[in-house]
Amino acid sequence: MKATIIGAGRLVLPSPGAAKARGWEHGLPLEAKARIDLSAVGPPGTIAEVGRLCVLERWRAKTAALPELCVAMCLESRRHGITHWISAANLECDSEDEAILVHEVIRRRGLMRSDIPVRLRAAEGPRTPPRFRFYTDEERGRASDGDLSGLRLPRAVSTDARLGARYIGEPIWDEHFGMFAQPLIAAVQDVIEAAERYLRALARAEGRR
After folding, report:
1. Is the CB of residue 150 less than 8 Å from the CB of residue 106?
2. Within 13 A of 60's CA, how many CA atoms are on the CB side?
3. How is 113-171 classified by DSSP, letter by letter?
4. What values do phi and psi take at 14, rounded to 5?
5. Distances (CA, A) of 118 to 47, 160, 161, 172, 176
């Protein structure tokens, strides 16, 4: 039977050469956007960057595809001595006001870490008027009245949080995707434990069928 690829991810290992050449700490792509002080979580050589996690749509809901992919990336990270990942979750909007609102919802959900300083290297943003918004007019109206209860989070944000990620700093502009993104950090141990819990829950659900 021919194998079919249903998911993929990118694991960028730290690069001392790139770090030295650019004046960064770890030599990771996200450092081009922001100066992230990771001294509270680990020294250079123990931090990697995860990105481009993707699973075919029909395999996303109630399947083992994503947790299995995360487990494989965790095991590969451990093999290289990596203890933490950094990344940025897609906020599904190109409006700065909307990105700030999503950030506030994340903060109120208790999903932020305040012990990791993040400083943007440049104030970048969209060059055209916003075309993509995440919240509906009704949700934005509630938010303008100060009611953020029940407001949704973008799928990548909620998924990463379930896998142990916590968010840091402010939203950044991702020119490649044309969307704002929220930086995050995750301990490899937390991710593998969360993924394995999800796999056990799936197995129990299958056993009840």
Report:
1. no
2. 9
3. -SSS-EEESS----SS-----SS-HHHHHHHHTT--TT----HHHHHHHHTT-EE-S--
4. -60, 145
5. 15, 19, 19, 11, 21
Lookup: tokens for 185: 């950090």
Report pLDDT digits (tens) over 196-206. 999 999 999 87
Taking only the tens place, the pLDDT of each residue in 130-177 is: 889 899 999 999 999 999 988 999 999 999 999 999 999 999 999 888
C-alpha distances (whole Å) from 42 to each of 47, 185, 192 are 7, 12, 18
- CA 51 – CA 45 distance, rounded (Å): 18
Query: Residues with Cβ < 8 Å from 174, sequence gap 6 or more?
Result: 88, 90, 180, 181
Question: What's the pTM value of the predicted model, to 2 decimals?
Answer: 0.91
Residues of the chain short of pLDDT 70, as ranges, are 1, 208-209
Question: What does the block give as tokens for 66?
Answer: 């994503």
Q: Which long-range contacts (CB under 8 A, 24 or more apart) does 2-5 make?
A: none
